[in-house]
Amino acid sequence: MSWRLSVQHRTSYKYEAPVVASFNEVRMTPASNGDQFLIHHGLYVSPHAHINRFRDYWGTDVETFDLQTPHETLEVVSDNLVEVSHPKVIDVGCTWSDLRNENIRDKYFEYTQHTQLANYVNASEISIEKRSPRDFVLLVSEYVNTQIAYVPGQTNVHTSASQSFESKVGVCQDFTHVTLSVLRHFGIPARYVSGYLFHGSQELGISSVGESHSWVEAWVGDWMAIDPTNQRDVDESHITVAKGRDYSDVSPLIGIYSGGASREVSVEVTITRQA
Q1: What's CA 157's distance to the chain center, in Å?
Q2: pTM of the full predicted structure?
Q3: Which residue among 175, 180, 198, 272 is least enclosed by CB atoms within 10 Å?
Q4: Pairing of strands 71-85, 223-227
Q5: Are the CB atoms for 148 and 184 separated by under 8 Å?
Q6: In terms of C-beta distances under 8 Å and separation of at least 24 residues, what long-range contacts does 57-61 make, across chains too?
Q7: pLDDT digits (tens, 9 = 90+) for 144-201
């Protein structure tokens, strides 16, 4: 089964005083891979700016622009049409010995290390005993889902896994960071996936408020996707944009600027099922 979805991601800034110059990186282009095909993407910036494009180290499509004229507002709109299929779940029978193989450890080394955001958490009550790596991934997802309550506004994008695990509250990036931390601690390569989650009307042509979302891919002989926030399969309602070690590798919009402080920021995601 596959869905064709249009996704519009609009970010607007208002500044207290004119910004005289800025440089910005945008990661809002849905990926094209085996389970997802990007049909159309357009990035629109106001004030108008020339867009440059490259693919970063982690394989994410990045767009950059700079503004050298004073401006008191900035609007960035990513407009997309993408076809998403339910990922094929393949159990290749990966063992713990396979994960300890020197070639595998070297190939996925960067996805086995703790980071500033996906730092160590003490999840000593769970064990790998009598579980395959794949079954352990499912156990960790369930465990994290029961340990953290979904409470918006209590954490931010700089909150580490240990902080959210200790406070027992967070949002999707916190569930993701804690899951990454536990999996990496036990030697399972795992990466942060950012994108969008569609949970609106499945009636064609009806626009719904969407949301930026994150989930996890763990390597157990092949990449296995899990959504610990919702404790559900990653399916055609999950639209992949970027992948990396943690949120710092996949931030949708980052930049530096000179001028007035940001007074107001608004983000709107609208998703419509087209087919």
Answers
A1: 12
A2: 0.96
A3: 272
A4: unpaired
A5: no
A6: 58/191, 58/242, 58/243, 58/244, 58/245, 58/249, 58/250, 59/31, 59/243, 60/27, 60/29, 60/31, 60/241, 60/242, 60/243, 60/244, 60/249, 60/250, 61/27, 61/29, 61/31
A7: 999 999 999 999 999 999 999 999 999 999 999 999 999 999 999 999 999 999 988 7
The Cα–Cα gap between 148 and 165 comes to 7
Q: Tell me the backbone φ, ψ of residue 248, rounded to 5 degrees.
A: -60, -20
Q: Quick count: other Cβ atoms within 10 Å of Cβ 266? A: 10
* CB contact at 8 A, 254 and 12: no
Place of tokens 């916190």: 174
H-run or E-run covering 78 = strand 71-85
Q: Which two tokens stand for residue 212?
A: 């930026």
- The CA distance from 258 to 215, in Å, is 34
Structural domains in the chain, CATH included, are 2-85+251-273 (2.60.40.2250), 96-248 (3.10.620.30)
